[in-house]
Amino acid sequence: MSAARPVLVVLYKDDLPDCMPLIEAAAEVRYVRAAELATAIPGADALLLWDFFSSAVEDVWAHADSLRWIHVAAAGVDKLLFDGLRQSGVVVTNSRGIFDRPIAEFVLGGILAMAKDLPGSLRRQRDGVWEHRETDRIDNANALIVGTGSIGRETARLLRAVGMRIEGVGRTARTNDADFGTVHASADIESVVGEHDYVVLIAPLTDATRGLVDASVLAAMKPSARLINVGRGELVHEGALADALSQGVIAGAALDVFSTEPLPATSPLWRLENVLISAHLSGDAAGWLERLSALFADNFGRYTAGAELLNVVDKELGFVPGG
């Protein structure tokens, strides 16, 4: 930390966090956008990535001569981590906990929308068609949650509350987990997906999870199964997923994240009636920016007091360890 007040760089895109008047009373604050980061980062003690999808830090890393702490206003840190940062002594914290309940509710909403064929009802309403049909129940349906961190756990608890049977997929296999019961190892996903009606992707994007759901995993799923992705688009082989959905290999998907965002107009996913598409918003429930701001203010107070920071990321694993 600087001898006097710490120097904080805030990388932003549009609006600023509402905690900044409080922070300015305790620090020298430099507000920049990505193009200006290289000139602002020298001498800075801390960096707030309010523009949380930016990858600009790697480009200016050679100028980060005093940096000790980076806080990311997001749960995922895959856009940030690179070898130089991993090998440095710079502490990285994220916004774990802010998105748990909103994403869990979004997953439940996607499951209900597909089980009750709400898109089909909307299409019939639009076309003025009265057509009776049956829909699915979700009690006793099996859900496999890929990702056993805090968001995955909140999702498991919510889905259990509506009567679904839950198992998890994580780095290591285990039994008697408080939220998942059985957790399967990621390497075994192909052998277990066929037992489940819903496969929910919430895992962080790491070298171990990139492309985890490929054509062979999709082929191993039930023809009646649905896939939900609220993690990262790169967890799934998108071309294989489009093929599986168009060919009836699986029944449907609710997708909030994609390999390229915004999803290109040329993507075949747009044209599939068994796909629900949303614009990477599953965690962004009303008040989310205020909650992100409050979490950073708490962590900044801890930083200036020399106290233990919240949500310290294991830079090798790519996420905050612990359940």
From TrEMBL:
Similarity field: Belongs to the D-isomer specific 2-hydroxyacid dehydrogenase family.
GO MF annotations, alphabetized: NAD binding; oxidoreductase activity, acting on the CH-OH group of donors, NAD or NADP as acceptor
Location of the D-isomer specific 2-hydroxyacid dehydrogenase NAD-binding domain: 109-282
Tagged with keyword Protein transport: no
Keywords: NAD, Oxidoreductase
The protein's name: 2-hydroxyacid dehydrogenase
Domain of life where this protein originates: Bacteria
Organism per entry: Cryobacterium roopkundense
Lineage start: Bacteria, Bacillati, Actinomycetota, Actinomycetes, Micrococcales
One Pfam family recorded for the sequence: 2-Hacid_dh
InterPro entries reported for this sequence: D-isomer_2_OHA_DH_cat_dom, D-isomer_DH_NAD-bd, NAD(P)-bd_dom_sf
Residue ranges annotated for the D-isomer specific 2-hydroxyacid dehydrogenase catalytic domain, each copy included: 16-313
Keyword Secreted in annotation: no
Alphabetical list of Gene3D superfamilies matching this protein: NAD(P)-binding Rossmann-like Domain
